[in-house]
Queue: 4 jobs
Job 1
Amino acid sequence: MSNTKPSWKPGKKDALFLGVVLLVIVLLVLGSSERTTKATPNDDVHRAATSHETCMTCHGKDGVRPQPVGHASSVQCFQCHTQPKDWQGAGK
Ligand code: HEC
Ligand code: HEC
């Protein structure tokens, strides 16, 4: 073995690196399946709530069911929480 002819052979470090990469991928896949955002309930209240302001009367900071701390500030609720099937607002 001389330094003038560098050749690459998978060694223990490479195997370890590959192992870590695979572990990270597996954890990401498992993690993402747990992160499915809750659907908006398909009940009278939620079918009839057709504006973000209405949602926030209950889900705002002082509402009966506030959004969790650190919740996204986006007003497009249905982008993440699936819209109720029989929602009465304007088309999708
Ligand atoms: C009159 C009060 C009220 C209004 C208005 C309202 N909600 Fe809710 N919402 C609740 C309550 C209470 C719950 C929890 C109990 C349940 O599952 O019905 C809930 C549950 C939810 C959930 C499920 C998460 C959980 O805690 O189980 C989502 C998502 C949600 N609401 C989104 C919305 C969106 C989006 C709007 C506007 C289109 C909206 N809500 C309007 C009272 C309200
Ligand atoms: C960028 C994505 C996103 C948007 C937009 C969004 N949410 Fe959420 N929301 C989440 C996530 C993620 C959670 C946390 C856990 C879960 O519900 O699975 C959450 C949680 C909640 C909860 C609590 C659920 C519980 O378990 O008690 C409520 C209530 C809620 N959101 C209401 C709303 C309302 C109302 C809007 C519109 C103003 C909205 N969300 C917009 C992503 C979003």
Note: The chain has four helices and no strands.
Job 2
Amino acid sequence: MSKKVLIVYAHESPASFNAAAKDAAVAALTAQGCTVEVSDLYAMKFKAAATTEDITGGVKDAENFCYAKEIKLASEEGRLADDIKKEQEKLKEADLVIFQLTGVNIKMTIKPVFQFPMYWSSVPAIMKGWMDRVLGFAYAQEKRYSEGIFKDKKAMLSFTTDCPESVYSDTGINGDINVTLWPLQNGILNYCGFQVFAPQIFWDPATGSPESRSSMLEGWRRRLQNLCVEASVYFAPLDYFDKEKGFLLKPEVKEKYASKECGLTVGIHMGKPLPANSQTKAGV
Ligand SMILES: Cc1cc2nc3c(=O)[nH]c(=O)nc-3n(C[C@H](O)[C@H](O)[C@H](O)COP(=O)(O)OP(=O)(O)OC[C@H]3O[C@@H](n4cnc5c(N)ncnc54)[C@H](O)[C@@H]3O)c2cc1C
């Protein structure tokens, strides 16, 4: 089996638990025959802010600068800043590779794994900057969600917290982790078309014993053995929505789900209880 995996990694310290989780992933995936590339954002001093400097050769409309439009155009015309181009190459390259799995030729798809400590219930600014700038060209209303630019690829979040799971439960003070993850997993990854694997969450590694940390890393290594055959988190497909009617759920879909106890997803909940664990478990 030969696959390309990109780990987008954001931690300031090589002695951190995040570094250990990243290193465990590199070792486990390499041992399986994968080619693993790491974008170490702090080491790269990756520029986080989306600005006019991301476009070479001058912007089209400096007076009314619109990043989404300009970055898309610059991408089409090959006028992106070098650091963005390099990261996009890592994403694009993999589409052309073929790999063999259980005797069947399958088009290889790169899997970006985002490894980070949770900051303000989200990703650190440097990683959000990577998403804004490297994925910026993929923010396209005509090609999004299940028709998104990266629809043949998979992605996942792998992160640490400084609190136990209960704090991010549906009665915990930080609120349900499934709600927390919705903007990242749906609003960014699913929007761009990625099939999203359930996140790898390391709950509060700083508080536990050395043994509990070792066992977290061991669990991660075990998961990585079968990651490529895991099912993805469920999102409503694009054709559930009516383009002519402001992308609202089509009446027939609403009817289909009318008698169900829960909504479709965390975001498309139809005024019903949220489906439990829908952002943290596959296929729920
Ligand atoms: C601005 C900001 C906002 C934040 N917002 C949130 C938030 O909203 N929600 C939240 O939950 N947290 C939040 N945090 C806390 C942050 O998420 C945690 O501090 C972070 O996730 C801990 O991960 P770490 O990799 O830095 O752990 P570390 O502190 O680096 O590591 C934890 C322990 O693991 C040990 N370790 C390192 N390597 C290994 C190894 N190979 N094997 C075994 N043990 C090892 C370390 O020595 C240490 O004892 C925030 C922090 C900041 C700065």
Note: The beta strands are 4-9, 35-40, 98-101, 104-107, 111-117, 154-160, 195-196, 200-202, 241-242, 248-249.
Job 3
Amino acid sequence: MSSKYKAMVLSCIDPRFQSIVYNYLKKKNLKGKYSLFTIAGSAIGVTSLKFKKWHKTFWDNIDISIKLHKIKKLIVINHRDCGAAKIVSGKKKFRRDIETKIHKVSFKKIKKKLKNKHPKLKIELKLISLNKKVERFN
Ligand SMILES: [Zn+2]
């Protein structure tokens, strides 16, 4: 990943992942180069119909971040065992394959919408496990 571009990072509010996300971005030499937008579910929160009221705020913030901070990239960081994914699944038992699908759908939606609204902006899609492993989805 190139470190010369400023980015907006979209991540979840889950307390277990705050330092993981921070350290991951630091390792990628992005310290001081990103704006952080944190909302329950990360990409799930800004794409799922269950959280429809939240979507506009996110896209408004992207617009402002492009104007004010000249961001060139959106880095989306979802995580495993996410409470927002559980809400979307609506099931008591939360299967890993169902969770993966919910993350994939959210990535697909955010990628498509970003391409429509801001075709020049790059996007990176990540899913972090509880053991801090980072999976790429693009
Ligand atoms: Zn979460």
Note: The chain is about 40% helix and 20% strand.
Job 4
Amino acid sequence: MGCYLSMAGIENIIFESANHPRPHVGESMVTSSTRVFKEIGFLPTMEREGFVKKYGASWHAPANRGRVAIEFNEFPQEGIDQDYTYHVDRGKFDNLLLKHAEALGSTVYQGVHVKQVLFEGSYAKGVRVAFAGHTVDVPADIVVDATGRQTLLGRQLGVKKKDPIFNQYAVHAWFTGVDRGTGGSADHIHIYFLPVERGWVWQIPITDTITSMGVVAEKEEFKKANKDLEGYFYAQVQTNQNLKDAMQNAVRVNEFRTEGDYSYSMTTFAGDGYVMIGDAARFVDPIFSSGVSVALYSAKYASDQIKIAVQEQNFSEEILKPYEVKLRGGVEIWYEFIRLYYKLLPLFTYFIQNKQHRLQVLQLLQGEVYNRGEVPVLKAMRDFIEKVEKTDNHLFKGQLTEIPIDDLPELIGVAD
Ligand SMILES: Cc1cc2nc3c(=O)[nH]c(=O)nc-3n(C[C@H](O)[C@H](O)[C@H](O)COP(=O)(O)OP(=O)(O)OC[C@H]3O[C@@H](n4cnc5c(N)ncnc54)[C@H](O)[C@@H]3O)c2cc1C
């Protein structure tokens, strides 16, 4: 956001409560991110810094040996001349991006915590920040909430709602000695399915030697296991033979970290004098590595509306709202894809291997979810599931889960 605004000549200040570099989950990207990096002039930095190039993704079933895989080069993307994206150490990546915004003209304050957004009537008019024991009110025409899963403004306004389906919990750490795979797949993200409800493990190469490994499952699974983080992590690893093999000589190099309560949406992303972007607006399950791309595109689309607002000196909800419509359109496609995926796991593998559907699935996995009307492959997945439901003795019948896919379930309660 800082980059886009500075490039448009709009004065902006970034308050960041952390001091970068700081660790962060969310290390594997989708290729659509490249378009934003190009627009803000950040691509040369990504190339120069030697992040691990990500050419594809591989999935491993719990019982079978072998994998299904996709490579990004199978389907060229408009405006993107690379057939890879990146895996990143988020400490390093976020720090570089912040520095880039500063170089383009954003004023950056690190170690400065935003305590609340200030309002006059319905209009956001600035922020109250705290640093070194002091509190200062800073006026602004527009406040952009980019506080990630802290969701500062969503909580302040009481518009944060929990996802009714997903309540996952992740335990992750970095390791050396992970066997990353053969056949050109060492630079892929590897996803290992676990034989528990919505359970999977990510394997993401961070450097030549360090690999990020994370176990994701419903929070109930962790509670039921009644184990400490390490015990739980390794017990899950044992349940997928390919994963067990990959981890045989792995040595952990940092502490286990956990992430929970991360599926939610704000009921609004834009109002008079404010927008929410990235995780501060909406978070969907990370199975397809969509988060950073959503954060980047939300900044891109919100900045388009902010430019209009500044030009017209009109900071009303009406001017800013088209951003929300655009972002919701994209994020809901991710969300539907994720729900269909969890509804019937073998379906995903079947669609990936099917000539007729493969490229369309790949397009989604590349992160091409914006400005689309109909997404035929999602309808095809839905129809397939309906057929399985209606056919007695269908091969996949026993594998259907309880996930509702017909109507979008209501968001529930107020999170946090
Ligand atoms: C288990 C798990 C796995 C994931 N895996 C992936 C993946 O592989 N690929 C992917 O793309 N995404 C992944 N994600 C999602 C990804 O982490 C996020 O979507 C992404 O980081 C969102 O970026 P953001 O800029 O919105 O928020 P963040 O990156 O969280 O940035 C928010 C910033 O705001 C600062 N901040 C917070 N509160 C305040 C405050 N009050 N005042 C000032 N500063 C504040 C924080 O210090 C932080 O630096 C994963 C998420 C989870 C939970």
Note: The two ends are 26 Å apart (CA to CA).
